[in-house]
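Thread: quick sanity check before group meeting

JM: Hey all, I'm pulling together slides for Thursday and realized we never actually wrote out the predicted structure for the chain we discussed last week. Dropping the sequence here so it's in one place. If anyone has concerns about the input, flag it before I start.
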Amino acid sequence: MSPQPQEAVGAPLSRVDGRLKVTGQATYAADHGAGHGIDGILHAVVVTSSVGRGRITALDTSAAEAQSGVLKVLSHRNAPTLPYRPNPGSLNLPGERLHVFQDDQVRFHGQPVAVVVATTLEAAQHAASLVRIDYDAQQPVTDLTGAPPNEPPAAYTRGDAEAAFNAAPVQLEMTYRLSRTHHNAMELHATVARWTGARVTVWEKTQWVQSTRDELAAVFGIPATDVRVISPFVGGAFGNAARCWPHTVIAALAAREVGRPVKLALTRRQLYSGVGFRPACEYRLRVGSDRDGRLTAMTHDLRSETSRYERFSERGVMSPGQMLYTTPNVSQTYRTVPLDVNTPTPMRGPGYSTAAFPLESAIDELAHELGIDPVELRLRNEPDTDQASGLPFSTRRLRECLTTGAREFGWSRRNPEPGQTRDGDWLIGTGVASAVYDTLRAPAQARARLNADGTALVESATSDMGPGTYTSMTQIAADALGLAVRAVTFRLGDTILPPAPVHGGSLTMASIGSTVQDGCDKLRQQAIQLAIEDEESPLHGAAPEDVVVRDGRLQLKNNPARGETYQQLLTRNNRTHLESDGAYTPARPQASMYAYGAVFAEVAVDRRLGLVRIRRMLAVYDAGRIISPKLADSQAIGGMVGGISAALLEHTLTDPRDGRITNANLADYLVPVNADVPQLKAIYLDGRDNTADPIGVKGLGEVVLVGVAPAIANAVFHATGRRIRQLPITIDALL
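JM (edit): ok, ran it. Output follows.
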């Protein structure tokens, strides 16, 4: 078939759902209620444990149950036994997920131990405060550095890293630490559950409607076909809505027990123990090189926290150390340390952003030790092939990212000596870091329908937590069908739609986009075939490859006057619509596929107060084909802001006496505000990766975070001459 004109893809379109969001018409999970056809809704409030480890010895709910409007108080004393069958569709962590209200054990501070159901939210909140619980408390262990791992480590090796390090002319040994951080998306987690007989429908904040469906089916021991999950809008997630958490089960259980719909929304404080987080990590790194800066050996030893009941490992945390730079001898161990905490979960740039801080800081330390420019040192260690897999790179333009970024940022004007550039009382520094994230893809399906009025509906059970899935898929569909964007509607977030993978890991654009392209290409071909076989059509007898569609009109590419509209064609043939199914199944990788970036940052550090301010930041990305430049900028700027937050502000503080998170609120858990965010600019290298997927994309949402924190840390060193090896970089570390 003739290639379609690309008029929507590549255009800086505003979000197609933007008006709904800014006018308050978009319905998030907690918005669903009587006004949305869910009559008789009740409110549930979770009661959480006030100790970090132990068991419940007494639980008095009499005062709560006596309150007006309270219908039920559920706990382990009166909750039914739930099957909790294995769920192969979940994240499949080793261990066993938390079973709500099934025993008297307390595994972490803030664990759900009861739920109050009442006619109003206020009644439920007040009654929850009246539940009295006694515990046989034990001392929780919450410190990563003081607890031993209890499982053999994951390991990787090539060459003889120990011997090569010992023989290296230049040797560096460093230990880096990253604090635990929480996602803190704008929308709180919420669930509305309603049973109709043995079937349950939940309106949920989730990045994966099918995973929530499968988990509820497994927990309650019912067929997945008896569970429907609806999630049309997600107000941010960054990974913490990628699995089904205990509050969703509690909402469904409460609704079944009282026989009415129930709404349950976690508070901001409950969010810190109710869903996962990016785990704290300790990363010991040894680097060996020759005097010219060519790496000869690296040893990586990582420890990160997990819960005692499940073992969470950050996917991809070992990958950058294996493939980012030419290193003939590499040794890695990765250990998880079980603590009395709830289970961690992926957070934006999972694994790769954790590894980037130590690795990119170490490269900067080596550059300083050798007196080599940090950009030049990275260029000297650029590999020709992926040393971990042995595969060639599909596309790897990190060298171009670095050189383009250096030119646009004005890197050549930099005084290489730390602490020598000043602006009044401010010490000025610049830093650079590379970024990498693997190009993930997964099987997906979509359904496309072309209506006789010339409009189209495209559907897939994916999600949109902010990157703009509604918009980007509409752009792809519009071009594939030859329609204006306004004539296409994309529908998502419902388990009755064609199945889709998790909305995370930067795999949505490649996976769902390729699926939408496939379905809409087939649909356009159907229409073209109908036209060329129709004796009354101006296109009768034409070759299919000679026909294109523009603005809903089928026409010969070399004779546009000869053609007709979809409406004319379908109406004349008495067709109300045409429909086609799209599918995408990734091929076995024949190449190493990653997105890359280079991040440049300029900081100012007050020489008396230790206060750090970001002055400007530039990032250059090799992310394949950019479907929507406006959405790409939104992703890149958001990622840079998240990286600023990780570098200078975010960290979760735990009281070691009882495991309580002491800053579980947005007053004490700091995230950037407008005053913290300077001029940010992103550049995208023009091109596409045809090896990765049919639409040539590599994913952008994760890589934009990965290199930001180390670039800032390296800039802080350049400004002050002080190397900070722990995130976040706090004022006290610079005084």
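AS: nice. The two ends are 66 Å apart (CA to CA). The domain at 29-140+187-272 is CATH 3.30.365.10 (Aldehyde Oxidoreductase; domain 4).
JM: adding both to the slides.
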